[in-house]
Amino acid sequence: MIGLKRKARVLLLDDDTSLQKLVTTLLKREGHRVDVVSSGTLALEKINSQDYDALLLDVMTPTDGGFTVIKHLKENKPALLQRVVLLTASPVSVLRGVKRDIFGIVFKPFEPADLIETVARVLAQ
């Protein structure tokens, strides 16, 4: 398993509180700082006020999800797109993510090791 080699600041966008807790626990065990939001609007507020090493974005939230954030990044912070990990249960989301040059995709439900490895690959870029 590839471990996260450096301490990172990660933003997690997901509306599922159970998943928020799981991802936060996994990444904090690796020594990372994790901020959690439940909407794309809140994610954009965080992104515009702080620097993040990686973004984990749920693409299917009830309101504005990860693709809202991705559109903003393309227009305003294109370098940050390379540090996005999509969290999805939908193969259609993968196709949309690939079209948007997203480098990391994790399917829900996921194995903890898969999440850690995907984040590590994104951080290594």
Would you give an account of this structure?
With 125 residues, this protein is α/β, with parallel strands linked by helices. Helices cover 45% and strands 19% of the residues. It has 5 helices and 5 strands; from the N terminus they run βαβαβαβαβα. Strands 2-1-3-4-5 form a 5-stranded parallel sheet, sandwiched between helices. Strand 1, helix 1 and strand 2 form a beta-alpha-beta unit. The radius of gyration is 13 Å and the shape is globular.
Rg (CA only): 13 Å
Give me the CATH architecture, please. 3-Layer(aba) Sandwich
CATH C-level class:
Alpha Beta
Biggest sheet features: 5 strands, parallel
CATH homologous superfamily annotation:
Response regulator
Range of helix content: 40-55%
As for the number of domains, it is 1
In DSSP terms (H or I, runs of 4 or more residues), the helix count works out at: 5
Mean pLDDT value: 87
